[in-house]
């Protein structure tokens, strides 16, 4: 699953909690400073991918007539263009490699800023960060289904995409995160 902007604070929170609970990491300036750094790095990565995708869309729009003339598959062209331009935007497209890179970046930034100290290997701490990202993303899909089912069972139907639906979804989603110890 792809990380989206609304997920960044939740993933950062999960990273902070997992590092704290590991008993391997001492947070020299508190949990909030660790979460803030993790969130900033996640947001920057997501925004870089958004810029990449916007550039790809611009390129494909400029060549829309040729795409239609040759009856090319838009999705395939989008993916090929994204793959070609990804290094220019600092984006790693392989999910595992990308989360590994983000984990290293978070760990290195936390160390550079003196926000954590730890016993053991850096790789072990990096794996805690990586696993926090993975666990959140796996849980998100399950949570989304649970929340949607709850909304569908409301007495008064809510229409997806409306402000009211989004508010209720967010509230129920955060309740489910709390139940599962992810928030």
Strand percentage: under 5%
Number of domains: 1
Q: What's the overall average pLDDT, rounded?
A: 91
The structure class reads mainly alpha
Spatial strand order of the main sheet: 1-2
Describe it.
- With 183 residues, this protein is mostly helical.
- The protein has one domain (5-179).
- Helix content is 73%, strand content 3%.
- It has 7 helices and 2 strands, in the order H-E-H-H-H-H-E-H-H.
- The chain has helices at 8-21, 31-62, 64-69, 74-89, 95-112, 122-152, 163-179; strands at 25-27, 116-118.
- It has a two-stranded antiparallel sheet with strand order 1-2.
- Helix 2 crosses helix 4 (74-89) and helix 2 (31-62) packs across helix 5 (95-112).
- The radius of gyration is 20 Å and the shape is flat.
- The model has no long low-confidence stretch (mean pLDDT 91).
Question: How are the SSEs ordered, and which strands pair?
Answer:
Elements: H1 8-21, E1 25-27, H2 31-62, H3 64-69, H4 74-89, H5 95-112, E2 116-118, H6 122-152, H7 163-179
Antiparallel strand pairs: 1-2
Task: Describe the structure in brief.
The chain is mainly α and 183 residues long. It is 73% helix and 3% strand. Strands 1-2 form a two-stranded antiparallel ribbon.
Could you list some keywords that capture this structure?
3% strand, 183 residues, mainly alpha, 73% helix, single chain, two-stranded antiparallel sheet, 7 helices
């Amino acid at each position: 699953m792809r990380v989206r902007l609304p997920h960044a604070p939740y993933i950062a929170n999960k990273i902070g909690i997992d590092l704290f609970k590991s008993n391997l990491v001492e947070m020299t300036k508190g949990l909030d400073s660790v979460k803030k750094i993790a969130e900033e790095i996640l947001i920057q990565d997501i925004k870089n991918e958004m810029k990449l995708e916007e550039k790809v869309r611009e390129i494909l729009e400029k060549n829309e007539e040729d795409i239609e003339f040759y009856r090319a598959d838009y999705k395939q062209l989008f993916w090929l263009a994204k793959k070609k331009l990804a290094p220019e935007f600092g984006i790693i497209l392989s999910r595992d490699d990308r989360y590994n890179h983000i984990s290293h970046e978070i760990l290195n930034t936390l160390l550079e800023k003196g926000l954590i100290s730890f016993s053991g290997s850096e790789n072990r701490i990096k794996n805690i960060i990586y696993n926090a990202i993975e666990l959140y993303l796996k849980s998100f899909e399950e949570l989304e289904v649970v929340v949607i089912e709850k909304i569908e069972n409301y007495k008064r139907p809510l229409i997806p995409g409306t402000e009211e639906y989004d508010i209720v979804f967010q509230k129920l989603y955060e309740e489910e995160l709390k139940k599962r110890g992810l928030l």
